[in-house]
Design brief:
mainly alpha
């Protein structure tokens, strides 16, 4: 479990640069509409996002557990491979080698839930509850990074474990999002591009490792199943003899 939590935290840290590009502008607009950055609101906003991710994780783990009960270890192996594939796709997108298939959907969902209007209203008030709700809403936006993390959470087949995994993932995204206004001003496009490529390559490697681990789980579980079948058959053989 510790390995899974570390991987989720790493995904959040590496993907944080993507978060700056997708959501950082919104956070910056909220902060810059005030004379100074209101840090209590900015911090509680981050934990609003983390709350949404954690709730998604609880649901994904519950669903994964149900699938595991129905399909057993072959299906869980498939879920692990699917999660690794999502990580590879997002890593390629993060590095700029694959277009973001969710960009239009993200813009559509943002418009439907009125995220821009909510941000304008929240930014004018020093209300912790308002900034927290803004974070909750932000967590609903379609995002390839979040879906890749949810794929891993789903493969865990544990509601509590998946919720904790998504919590760690959310924590990993906080540093970049917390300092998004400053980073957007200081990072040149060239530097941000190189950092995104490096993060994307690392995520692709993690995705391949996840897929390989899923295959290893399949072989291990299959060998264990075969051994159980042999052990259960041995008493009968001895009785026959």
């Amino acid at each position: 479990m510790l390995e899974a939590l570390t991987m989720m935290l790493t995904m959040g840290l590496l993907g944080g640069l993507h978060c700056i590009g997708m959501c950082g502008g919104l956070v910056s607009a909220m902060c810059m509409s005030r004379p100074t950055v209101w840090w209590p609101g900015l911090v509680i906003y981050q934990f609003g996002r983390v709350t949404t991710y954690s709730l998604f994780g609880l649901v994904a783990g519950l669903f994964g557990g149900m699938l595991g009960d129905i399909g057993g270890w072959p299906l869980l192996k498939g879920l692990a491979i699917f999660a690794g594939l999502l990580m590879i796709i997002f890593g390629l997108n993060l590095a700029g080698w694959l277009p973001d298939p969710l960009r239009r959907l993200t813009a559509l969902v943002s418009a439907r839930i009125g995220l821009a209007a909510l941000a304008r209203n929240v930014a004018q008030r020093a209300s912790l509850s308002g900034w927290y709700v803004m974070g909750l809403a932000n967590g609903l936006l379609p995002c390839g990074l979040v879906y890749a993390a949810l794929g891993l959470a789903l493969a865990s087949a544990s509601s509590a474990g998946a919720g904790l995994m998504m919590f760690c993932f959310g924590l990993g995204t906080i540093p970049s999002m917390l300092f998004a206004p400053a980073l957007l001003r200081k990072l040149t496009p060239q530097l941000r591009g190189w950092m995104l490529r490096i993060a994307g390559v690392i995520l692709v490697v993690l995705g391949v490792m996840t897929m390989l681990r899923g295959g290893a789980m399949h072989m291990h579980q299959g060998a264990g199943h075969q051994q159980i079948m042999q052990d259960s058959a041995m008493p009968g053989m001895h009785d026959h003899m």
